[in-house]
Design goal:
By secondary structure, the chain is an all-alpha fold. The chain has 6 helices and no strands. α2 packs parallel to α4, α3 runs antiparallel to α4 and α3 runs parallel beside α5.
Length: about 110
Amino acid sequence: MNPAELLGFIGGGIGMFYGLPQALRIRLLGHGTGVNLTTWLLTFGVSTSWAAWGFGANSPSALIMNICGALVNGSVVVAIMPSTRRAIIYLLAITAVLWFLILTLPDAIVSAL
């Protein structure tokens, strides 16, 4: 494994856990009152986009760690939304659109976005 991938796994592992306390708190309290859904949807989108980039760039650290981050962020979204089914549909739609855009648009456009 090259040093860049190793650093990617380390950084991704650290970054992945910033959403975990929020997800656990929501589960413990049983509600997501005061937690902004839009912020967590955007954070989920960022993780999903980076995972798509990691897939396209053959970067295991970017792919794996951002999938893990998306799962953590997605768990917060599912906990906030009153309907689990609706939350999962939103998350799958966001994932499908972002992966399609990241993997099909030219690199110059993706980099600008």
